[in-house]
Amino acid sequence: MSDVTYTPIEEYGFIGNLETCALIGPNASIDWFPFPHLESESIFAAILDPERGGRFCISPGEPFEASHQYRERTNVLETTFRTSNGTATVTDFMPPAGQIDQPKQVLYRKVTCREGPVDLDLEFEPRFDYGRAEMTFSSTEAGICAESEKTQVLLEAPIDLTILDNRVTGRISVEPGESEWFLLRCPGAEDAATDPSTALAATTDYWTNWAHNCDRVEGDCAFGGSWHELAVRSGLVLKLLTHVDAGAIAAAPTTSLPEGIGGVRNWDYRFNWLRDAGFTVQALSNLGHSAEANEYFDWFMSVCQIDDPKELQPLYGLHGDVDLTEQELDHLAGYRNSQPVRIGNAAADQRQLDIYGELLLAVDEMLQYDRSLDDDEWDAVRSIVEYVQDVWTNSDAGIWEVRGGNKHFVYSKVLCWVALDRGIDIATRYGYDAPLDDWHDTRATIKEDVLENGYDDSVGAFMQAYGSNAIDATGLLLPIVGFLPFDDDRVQNTIAVIDDRLVEDDVLVQRYDGDDGLPGGEGAFVLCSCWLIDALSLSGRVDDACDRFKRLMEYVNPLGLIAEEVAAGTETYFGNYPQAFSHIGIINSALYLGYVQGYGLPGPPPMGIRLGEPIENKP
Questions:
Q1: What single DSSP character describes residue 53?
Q2: What is the pLDDT of residues 312-323, one digit of tens each?
Q3: Is the pTM for the entire model greater than 0.90?
Q4: CATH number of this structure's domain 9-192
Q5: Class of domain 215-596 (CATH, top level)
Q6: Distances from the Cα of 580 to the Cα of 82, 282, 305, 603, angstroms
Q7: What is the β-pairing status of strands 179-185 and 106-115?
Q8: Could you give the count of Cα atoms lying within 13 Å of 280 in the half-sphere of its Cβ?
């Protein structure tokens, strides 16, 4: 049953328990599953190496057609097989940690026959520690125990299983109306009592109750367009990527899914990037998930309360870990032979000056929702602003974490301006102590510097960096963060140049068109495509923005999931999957389009509306 083919990234579904996630292919094969946490070593990693990574597959032993779907407004995944003999469904889920009275360390698999009988083959091949651990297997009264020197898992199964060459196989035949359960008990749940049907009902109820809901009366929901359910699913994605105890949100549940097949742009995204803060808070708050927005805010404010803002990293482990040393796993082939496979991320050691402005945007956003800052939190904010005063003239690696040397990136300078601008506004509005005259002077100096050195009159656009010939999609954000109004000619010119030089298939936007110090290319960046839609929406080009958003939605897979990047004109995904920033972009684009079309906002105006002085709709 084992083969050396790779399942396309876009065909995977995913489940999780708010501490970790699993990716499941259309053949009901669990091909990626780190445990106990998202950034932990893997139990299954066939997505990175079908021969060495390990999998847990339950699928028909004859030709079949398959389809994925989630139970409505849940993260319970159903894979339905249709064979010549009948139809069977595999239902996969994990109980959300700390939210219901069920063991979080159990992965449940329910096999149900609708028409039949249907025979399904089981292949159980755990490979701990990214396939590096020595494994042993033994039979137990309940099923099969797989263990290494450091850990073990127990597969409970209602069928006879065979162990051969560190691989477990079996066959189950189900009749119409029959259901059978397979339980993967991970460390911590070996002896936990579980009733599978109760766990499924409780998990389904939890997700249904958590998901964004509204009356869908026209004008009552900010997400009331045709993309309403996509925004709901994007919220469910963000929740699965949120660590229940820490409140941090992972950029993606995977590592090393390549930005170009066979290339080296393969990164570990199982960490929290500070640059995501402002847009994440905005997305969660407007979907009505205020508890998650507040928990996320608490997480990054705790990170910020350090003695020296210079020590702030662009990214952290989900528990606040600072040591994210990048390693290469040479023994793994990589997805479709894209090497190296990496764990950890060296970008944690880079200097990225944009993070300070993004943190201030997040603080400002939370204050709009009546959150207050205590003295220690304000001291942290003030120290960040004062640090920016000292370092804004420096070069850095930029938001895209280039590995070709530091530059004076325009977006980094603008976000330094944002740090001063939001710091001034927050101190003024709430009466916090601050050297406002000095801050005003620095803010004005940064703006003057960017306008003089960042805009190229001959090109008619803000460039990627001072003296650069490259165009960068971050130019779309300048009006959204309030640096210039949307009706400024330089803003509109920049949008036009980006549309001309970086856009494929009418909506897919490349991040930039300059050299970044790495070989090979990459797909179009979904988040940047959302930024274009946002810029058009708030520039009064509403019909154009709507048309492009609908075009972008055609790239979202049937499960409502999308990766970091897509290939124009195809359904091929690149990069880690599903990508939090892509789904954040979708939520915020739906929000802006809802606003410009007259749908009610659930709270205060978001960025771009509050800060960017949008243009009234054009016919």
A1: S
A2: 999 999 999 999
A3: yes
A4: 2.70.98.90
A5: mainly alpha
A6: 32, 13, 25, 22
A7: antiparallel
A8: 32
